[in-house]
């Protein structure tokens, strides 16, 4: 019995470490997983392993992909004059789902703090500077689409400071989104309206 309780608690603890999953949500997930037929549970476990071993950051924008370049970066029909900067791939997926943006993306890999000097050399920011330096003027606009949280605002200001010298127009998505909301959880209509109503920084 003690061993079973340890396995149960261990699974709850691991699921609780996922973003946006608290202890109660993790507990509900564990009960749902325990009720799955064995074959479905095995398929789920294998899908997690396959994704973990096959997915990697896109070499250009850092989106999750199984190829060197993600489908968006590899699509010649996308508008290469615009780069929309997001904190993580989840926000990118949500914006893509809205269907209203046809440019390229860049994933920072999290929020950045201007107080932390190491963030100036963070992989996502360093590669954004490299993209702009190598674009030969093709990139005309960088749209900052970080979440309207304190951390997201600080990240937008920091990125603006770091890329202003590249001569591109820097805009920020509009505030059609509730303050404090993570971009990943916003609805598609609010997202596209905020992109359409972006402002110059």
Report what the structure shows.
The longest helix is centred in the N-terminal third of the chain and has 17 residues, at 38-54. This protein has 201 residues and is an alpha/beta fold. The protein is elongated, with a radius of gyration of 19 Å. It has seven helices and seven strands. Helices cover 44% and strands 13% of the residues. The model has no long low-confidence stretch (mean pLDDT 85). Strand 3 (79-86), helix 4 and strand 4 form a beta-alpha-beta unit. The strands form two sheets. A five-stranded mixed sheet has the order 4-3-5-6-7. Strands 1-2 form a two-stranded antiparallel ribbon. 26% of the residues are buried. The chain has two domains: 2-54, Helicase, Ruva Protein, domain 3, CATH 1.10.8; 77-200, Dna Topoisomerase Vi A Subunit, Chain: A, domain 2, CATH 3.40.1360.
Give the CA-CA distance, first to last residue.
60 Å
Biggest beta sheet summary: 5 strands, mixed
Percent of residues in beta strands: 5-15%
Percent range for helical residues? 40-55%
Instruction: Output mean pLDDT.
Output: 85
* Count of distinct structural domains: 2
Cα-atom radius of gyration: 19 Å
What is CATH's topology name of the largest domain?
Answer: Dna Topoisomerase Vi A Subunit, Chain: A, domain 2
């Amino acid at each position: 019995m003690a061993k079973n309780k340890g396995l149960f608690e261990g699974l709850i603890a691991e699921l609780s470490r996922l973003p946006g999953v608290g202890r109660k949500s993790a507990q509900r997930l564990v009960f749902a997983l325990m009720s799955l037929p064995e074959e479905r549970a095995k398929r789920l476990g294998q899908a997690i392993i396959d994704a973990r071993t096959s997915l990697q950051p896109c070499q250009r924008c850092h989106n999750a992909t199984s190829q060197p370049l993600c489908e968006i970066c590899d699509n010649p029909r996308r508008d290469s004059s615009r780069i929309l900067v997001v904190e993580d791939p989840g926000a990118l997926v949500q914006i893509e789902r809205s269907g209203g943006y046809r440019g390229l993306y860049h994933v920072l890999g999290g929020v950045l703090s201007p107080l932390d000097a190491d963030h100036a050399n963070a992989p996502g920011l360093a590669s954004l500077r490299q993209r702009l330096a190598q674009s030969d003027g093709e990139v005309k606009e960088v749209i900052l689409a970080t979440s309207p949280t304190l951390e997201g605002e600080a990240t937008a200001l920091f990125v603006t400071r770091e890329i202003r010298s590249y001569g591109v127009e820097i805009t920020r998505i509009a505030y059609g989104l509730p303050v404090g909301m993570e971009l990943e959880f916003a609805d598609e209509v609010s997202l596209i309206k905020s992109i359409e109503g972006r402002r110059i920084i």
